[in-house]
Design goal:
Blueprint lengths: L3 H11 L5 H15 L12 H12 L4 H9 L2 H4 L4 H8 L1 H10 L10 H18 L2 H15 L7 H21 L3 H15 L1 H35 L5 E6 L2 H11 L10 E7 L2 H14 L1 E2 L5 E2 L12 E6 L5 E8 H9 L19 H12 L3 H12 L3 E5 L5 E5 L4 H8 L1 H5 L1 E6 L2 E3 L9 E7 L16 H33 L6 H11 L4 H9 L5 H8 L19 E2 L9 E3 L11 E5 L5 E5 L12 E6 L7 E10 L4 H11 L3 E11 L2 E10 L2 H13 L3 E6 L1
Parallel strand pairs: 2-6, 7-11, 12-16, 13-15
Antiparallel strand pairs: 1-2, 3-5, 4-5, 5-6, 7-8, 9-10, 9-11, 14-15, 14-16, 17-19, 17-20, 18-19
Length: 696
């Protein structure tokens, strides 16, 4: 553990103008506040914030960040308050400490909810000042280094999983690769102990048997470059154990089948020398196609810059080579922390960190704890591709991203209005995965809106959060629309006319914020008819016998509502416009629409029934029919021709039985109404290719 004078001397070594007295006061404050508290290792608790502060000095961070590191656990684990810290150390330190501090233990929350709320607060604070992230990463790094002292295996695995899912990717996203690699290694040891032991054992064996080979290859690379008149530094190492394990898992190969376990780093004096060295190495040894990446001309989103290539050395040995300048290497290892030194003259949020703005947008859009954690993990994982707009703007996206993900990355409104896409000038479906270097053009329409089906293929947290938010808003609006129609029916049954005052009084009695909430509660069956009547006119339904309960006077039209939002067309009977329909309403489940003769209606006997109608201008629906075709060439084509002639689009076609001389198919068709479906069935029955056709 660093002693007080050692910590202060470290800061003064790179920042002679630092307030020595305040640094000493912060050190003493954390020692006093944590007092006799102990860590799982048995060490005094204050050793942890002191070590975290030591990590911050290695990054040469400013005085406020060092003090924040010293105090980061005082508010959470001692009687210290943010107000007291502000009084003693100033508003900037207080704000940073509050950002790093976890929420207090909230007993009513589940584990995932607590994790989500902690993450929510942390990300919001980080968006205002990235020093919060730097302290948090150092805090997690030291906790991981001492994780083995915790006796509970479940707790160790939980912390390791959180580190692997959240903090290691965050470190990668801000370019702090040293932190990322060490966190991944320590988490890997806890999560996959057998794999960790096997891989590290194999690497140790390679090191002892072939240790000289790494140095020999590094020397050969340096000689090849020196002969061309270049002065470079070359170093070699085995691949990171977690990186090897992930490659084994992704490629489904054994350790022996991994051919590029060794990696080499070439450091040059200038950017031009990087490309010169690349050309020399490609002439000296055969390069492996598809493995060259130029992050110098096109840096990663976190600012990482380097040339990556893979070469075939002697005896078909594959090695990876990274070529970068000394400055690039320094910035790559510590990322944004390299820009955050005391020399900057005051720390401001980095306006260029677009992914951080995306995280803040995800915070606003996420509905619950699981959704926040899911979307955040999707937003910070590191496997990326590059895609361009037609004007040349560059966007980084996760592997597997689609045009919809790209559209939301460009702008939320563009994603919401997307109706089509072109990739490299060619029209493609919206679910098409993007490739590295694709030029993506989004076709939009002001009348378009996000589709629920998009959630089945989008991969970015930003797109998923925006689509879910829109779906929730639209679903709420449509449920409220049903509720308003039911409300109008209920009002007509009241013994007296009511006005705006009666409605406002009802909202107060029901403790609802506004009229929209009232209509939503009616539409979602959270309030039944009796409760609504009693709230509007107290006593109006109290003495009314259940058997004399008045029924609806007119059916409620579903025109303008979207299937899958406020109501769902039942899969058992597939009602279409023209069918007599009723709705089954259950709390928080929306309305399920059935044809009046559906055999499964009896299952909803405990539900609230609503009389529904289609309205003359209702859009079409999907009808289902069964057709038995003669087993001879061309019959399926003839059936498809009948569908086309009658302007019906096939949504789904399934062969359900194959028994000579017949094949039986079930077909889902987009039809306008019952008359349209009936004409199609009649045309099928008239065809010589069809033995039998009926609606199901």
């Amino acid at each position: 553990m660093l002693r007080q004078y050692e910590l202060v001397e470290r800061v003064l070594a790179y920042d002679p103008d630092a307030d020595e007295a305040m640094l000493n006061r912060a050190y003493v404050y954390t020692v006093q506040k944590h007092g006799t508290q102990k860590r799982a290792s048995g060490d005094p608790y204050f050793s942890h914030p002191v070590e975290v502060a030591g990590l911050m000095t290695e990054l040469k961070l400013d005085q406020d960040t060092i003090i924040t590191a010293l105090l980061h656990d005082t508010v959470e684990d001692t009687l210290a308050t943010v107000e007291e810290i502000e009084r003693l150390f100033g508003p900037d330190v207080a704000r940073l400490v509050d950002g790093v501090t976890k929420l207090s233990k909230i007993e009513t929350m589940s584990e995932s909810e607590r994790a989500a709320e902690n993450l929510r607060k942390f990300l919001l604070a980080m968006s205002e000042d990235l020093r919060v992230l730097l302290v948090k990463l150092a805090d997690r790094m030291h906790n991981m280094r001492t994780l083995h002292y915790i006796k509970s295996e479940d707790k160790r695995r939980r912390i390791a999983r959180e580190t692997m899912d959240i903090y290691a990717p965050l470190a990668e996203r801000v370019g702090m690769y040293e932190y990322m690699r060490e966190m991944q290694l320590l988490a890997f040891e806890q999560l996959e102990p057998e794999a960790y032991a096997t891989i590290t054992g194999r690497l140790a064996a390679i090191r002892s048997e072939e240790g000289a080979q790494v140095d020999a290859i590094a020397l050969e690379i340096k000689k090849a470059l020196a002969q061309a008149g270049m002065r470079v530094e070359v170093s070699g190492r085995e691949k990171h154990p977690y990186s090897i394990w992930r490659k084994m898992a992704e490629r489904h190969v054994s350790f022996e089948q991994i051919t590029d376990i060794m990696a080499f780093r070439v450091l040059t004096d200038s950017e031009d020398d990087c490309y010169k060295a690349l050309g020399i190495l490609h002439r000296a040894w055969q390069m492996i196609p598809g493995r060259f990446k130029d992050y110098v001309s096109t840096p990663k989103m976190n600012g990482y810059r380097s040339l990556h290539t893979a070469l075939i050395y002697s005896n078909a040995m594959r090695v990876e080579v990274q070529i970068k300048t000394h400055e690039m290497h320094e910035r790559n290892e510590y990322g944004l922390a390299a820009h955050w030194s005391y020399k900057q003259g005051g720390v401001q949020p980095d306006a260029q960190v677009g992914w951080l703005r995306d995280l803040v947008e995800i915070l606003d859009s996420s509905h619950d704890a699981e959704e926040l954690l899911e979307n955040t993990k999707m937003a910070i994982y590191q496997d990326r591709i590059f895609a361009f707009t037609p004007k040349g703007s560059l966007f980084q996206l996760p592997k597997g991203a689609t045009p919809i993900d790209f559209a939301f990355a460009v702008h939320t409104n563009l994603g919401a209005q997307a109706v089509g896409a072109k990739i490299n000038g060619r029209h493609v479906p919206l679910r098409t995965p993007l490739g590295n270097g694709d030029v993506v053009e989004i076709i939009k329409s002001r009348n378009s809106e996000p589709q629920l089906s998009w959630l089945g293929f989008v991969v970015t947290g930003k797109a998923r959060a925006a689509i879910r938010r829109f779906v929730r808003q639209k679903e709420r609006a449509e449920v409220a629309a049903i509720g308003r129609k039911l409300y109008e029916e209920i009002v007509e049954r009241l013994p007296t006319k009511i006005g705006k005052k009666a409605l406002n009084d009802a909202l107060k009695r029901l403790k609802l914020a506004g009229e929209e909430d009232f209509m939503f509660a009616i539409g979602s069956a959270k309030l039944d008819d009796r409760q609504v009547m009693e709230a509007l006119v107290p006593g109006s339904a109290a003495n009314l016998p259940q058997e004399d309960w008045p029924s609806q006077k007119r059916a409620i039209a579903v025109r303008g509502l979207t299937p899958g939002m406020a109501f769902k067309l039942a899969d058992c009977c597939h009602p279409v416009p023209g069918d007599r329909i009723v709705g089954l309403r259950r709390p928080a489940k929306g309305v399920e629409v059935h044809a009046i003769d559906c055999m499964k209606l009896a299952d909803g006997i405990d539900a609230d029934w609503i009389d529904l109608s289609w309205d003359a201008r209702t859009d079409g629906a999907i009808g289902r029919l069964r057709a038995e075709l003669y087993n001879r060439p061309g019959t399926l084509a003839e059936m498809a021709g009948i569908f086309a002639k009658n302007h019906a689009n096939v949504v789904n076609l399934e062969m359900t039985q194959r028994e000579n001389p017949f094949h039986t198919y079930e077909v889902d068709l987009e039809v306008r109404d019952l008359a349209h479906l009936t004409r199609i069935i009649s045309a099928l029955r008239a065809s010589e290719a069809v033995a039998q056709a009926e609606r199901i």
